[in-house]
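Hey, weird one. I pasted the Phage portal protein sequence into the form twice and got a warning about non-standard characters only the second time. First submission, copied straight from the form history:
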Amino acid sequence: METRDTQSGRPSWSLSPENLAVAYGQAQFMSSTGAPSDSGWFGPLAPLAPIAPPAVAGRGFDFPSGYNIAVGARAFEPIGFSDLRALAETYDLLRLVIETRKDQIERMAWSLRPRAGTRGPGPARIAELTRFFERPDGEHCFSDWLRMLLEDLFVIDAPTLWRQRARNGALVALHPLDGGTIKRVIDDWGRTPQSYFDGAQWVYPVAYQQILKGYPAVDYTARDIFYAPRNPRAGRIYGFSPVEQIVMTASIALKRQTFTLSHFTEGNIPESLIGVPESWTPDQIKNFQDYWDAYFTGDLAARRRAKFVPGGVAKTFIQTKEPELKNLFDEWLARIVCYAFSVSPQAFVAHVNRATGETQKEMAEEEGLWPVLMWVKRLIERVLIEDFGESEIEFAWGSDAQIDAEQQQRILVAYVGSGILTRDEARQKLGLAPLERDEARDDASADADDFGKA
């Protein structure tokens, strides 16, 4: 309600909520849903109307505008591929852990076999595909080929395979590419562009670019290469490797190693200080120092022998304290590095009994080795499905332990004879195709001797 100031005569309005209805009628308040409601008094109000078109719905994350025109992989990441590789190649403990993990995977046996619950293709087809994967790129054996992929997996989480094809489109070889040269291209929703059918033919948009000499050199589609990070994140373009997860720890350890190296190569603190009579002049001190140094030059044995010196010199001998070159902090750094790769740290720490060491080894294999093996399995089976059209073949890891063939046969014969396994299930464990007879798959009480002869 409008009033007049008694002194100035100017109009004024009361801010009391009770007067609001008197001046303007019934007060209207907006709730958070945008509808009039008394509960909206001093409430959160309705949200601002979105400004993006409806087609933006489903965008993966808030990526930088113009992301695809940036030259170079990880252009918007704080740590580059070269930095991660420098850490992995310079910090020797980190390198040893990486190589140990690769060795553990290399010793595992593998095979191709029919997928459980399917008959799968014949043994000839499985043998043909097995020969292909024995040398996937036509040059390196499977173990060497896999080690190249694991290097990029552990260090930069960007393992990449280029699919070389024949003129008819058939897969010829799988060549490892340097994942550090591959820049991802994203669509309007922040995802890898996928192929689509435009009504007349399939269109394969650019999904990756290879950066060479600082320039975009080659365009690749999702059909041309396999780009398979193991640890992708919804808010990032690139994967998150174990090395990147411990960048700070590895940097600290690397500086500590540099400090230790300087202890042996540089420094201005001598091993001991020996006083001389106060009456000696600087020239006399220098002459005696030169004599002392020359006396031991080139004679390592003489440096450890006792020497007779004047009494005044012997009384003022000061032994400087040696720096501590290894302590619990070094073990803590080693534990962090080993934990990042799920490798047992018992080789780098003290006071580990046998029981603890075996427990750590089992935990490392369960927590760290098996997920990597499953990543390899998924990658190989993706090749089998997409390029060979074989969805009924699976890639199977064997045990790293050497199993006696005769003992394994006796165990399987006993399982089949007791009805625990069918003959086809036993053959599958051996990597063999199911029998042609339908009844062999269902007859759990098949004669064990007959299986032993099969």
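That's the output from the first submission. The warning seems to come from a hidden character in my clipboard, not from the data itself. The radius of gyration is 36 Å.
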